[in-house]
Amino acid sequence: MSKHVAVIGGGVIGLATAWALVCSGQRVTLIDSAPRIAEETSYANGGQLSYRYVSPLADAGVPLKALGWMFDGPAAPLKFHPRMDPAQWRWCLSFLMACRTSVNRRNGEHLLRLSLFSQQILDMWRDEYLLDGFAWRRNGKLVVYRNQKGFASACTKISEVGPQMLTPSQCVALEPALADVEAHLAGGIFSDTDEAADCYLFCLKLEERLIASGSYERLQHRVQGFIEHNGHIDALSLEHDAPFEADDYVLATGNASTGLAQRLGIRLPLYPLKGYSLTLPFNGNSGVPDISVTDFDNKVVYARLGEQFRVAAMVDIGASDAAINPKRIAALCGLCEATFPHAGDYHQAQVWTGSRPSTPTGAPILGATPFSNFWLNTGHGSLGFTLASASGQIIADLIGGKPAPICLDGLTLPRMH
Ligand SMILES: Cc1cc2nc3c(=O)[nH]c(=O)nc-3n(C[C@H](O)[C@H](O)[C@H](O)COP(=O)(O)OP(=O)(O)OC[C@H]3O[C@@H](n4cnc5c(N)ncnc54)[C@H](O)[C@@H]3O)c2cc1C
């Protein structure tokens, strides 16, 4: 029998969950506090469906580099702003623990398992349901390294799922727009089956199809908490409205998940990691890379998304607000000009900032909770678009009473498995 599921949060994670649920025969009410969907972190992200390159940020060497970056100028890939905030210190401590090589490797494996499944599910949605119209391309992803030691270390971590190691000249042969930086490259790693797409358009298309299904409605409400009894959620309490009842409830509110889960005594180890993006018109410009490119050492990703060229970058830990920092943006424009000087006028770009809802390990938190009908789908950090399809499908399977389609080790609420 079909269930009525309330999905809380209308970003890419909530929408992919709603879609997977409707495809498996359930009825969905999506509840978001904003009048329009996907205008928070899912709005103008890097657009990379980075299935084969999912190495967590927490890695050996990162803490030392982060210390150095604190004293670097505004171009530093990562900036740590220490705060009198116990949540920040707890998160940073767990992040430090996750930087051990063995832990990084293990978390990388969990992420790879999930990301490869995500590619499978998105393929299925595109083939079986003819989901399109979101600037999707299988254009491959080239990660370039400027530092020889970093490149050598990355080569040792290449998984058996196919990325190729390239010399600087092979990188340029593959992506001629890199010609101006060839002399600064140590090498590259290319995954030819990785993809890129526009995350915001993906969300809009999903909702268009959800509405057409007749099994979906969206309500604009701020969820404030939960009415629970004996390990079961009876209803959501809403700001300015009566409680909302459903059979099952999925929490997919990105950065807001921590506060909501806390109402049920569930502690989620999430922290917002602020980043920026620039969007330029593409105009058929040959200076724009055709392949998605990641500049590993500067932590900048470049992708052509339909008629747009998107650059996304930087991690600010403990940034005090969601404002755009003009010094960070000027530094990012400088970096882009030095890397792809003929791609357009970066100073005319649309600038955006968003905060990645991040766990210390980089792995999201999916699935069951101590409440029988309350499910988590949150904490996707810098890979939310990549992992959305798999994460949605997993939740739909679990709510439908099926076993998880992949092993969920390392991907659930800590101490739940
Ligand atoms: C600079 C940058 C670049 C990135 N690049 C990439 C990339 O290239 N590839 C990739 O895979 N990922 C990338 N990401 C990560 C990705 O964007 C995120 O992981 C993803 O968008 C998170 O989606 P979400 O649905 O969890 O959260 P969100 O998109 O933030 O959605 C949460 C929703 O919950 C709603 N909400 C919040 N509180 C409540 C409440 N109390 N009641 C009701 N509704 C509520 C909000 O209104 C919002 O709509 C990037 C992120 C950033 C910041």
Helices and strands in order, then pairings?
Layout lengths: L3 E5 L3 H12 L3 E6 L15 E2 L12 H9 L7 E3 L5 H13 L2 H28 L12 E5 L2 H9 L7 E3 L1 H7 L12 E5 L3 E2 L2 H15 L2 E5 L2 E7 L2 E7 L2 E4 L3 E4 L5 H6 L8 E11 L10 E4 L4 E6 L2 E10 L8 H14 L10 E9 L6 E4 L5 E5 L5 H16 L18
Parallel strand pairs: 1-2, 1-13, 2-9, 4-17, 5-15, 13-20
Antiparallel strand pairs: 3-8, 5-7, 6-7, 10-11, 11-12, 14-17, 14-18, 15-16, 16-17, 19-20
Helix pairs in contact: 1-7, 1-10, 4-10
Bound molecules: flavin-adenine dinucleotide.
Explain what this protein looks like in three dimensions.
The protein has 417 residues and is of the alpha/beta class. It has a domain at 58-99 and 136-194 and 272-356: D-Amino Acid Oxidase, Chain A, domain 2. Helix content is 31%, strand content 26%. The chain contains ten helices and 20 strands. It has helices at residues 12-23, 62-70, 86-98, 101-128, 148-156, 168-174, 199-213, 257-262, 326-339, 384-399, and strands at residues 4-8, 27-32, 48-49, 78-80, 141-145, 164-166, 187-191, 195-196, 216-220, 223-229, 232-238, 241-244, 248-251, 271-281, 292-295, 300-305, 308-317, 350-358, 365-368, 374-378. The strands form four sheets. Strands 4, 5, 6, 7, 14, 15, 16, 17 and 18 form a nine-stranded mixed beta sheet that branches. The protein has a six-stranded mixed beta sheet with strand order 9-2-1-13-20-19. Strand 19 and strand 20 form a beta hairpin. Helix 1 packs parallel to helix 10 and helix 4 (101-128) packs across helix 10 (384-399). The radius of gyration is 21 Å and the shape is globular. The relative contact order is 0.22. Flavin-adenine dinucleotide binds at residues 8-14, 31-34, 40-42, 45-48, 50, 222-223, 252-254, 256, 260, 275-277, 301, 312, 354-357, 378, 380-386.
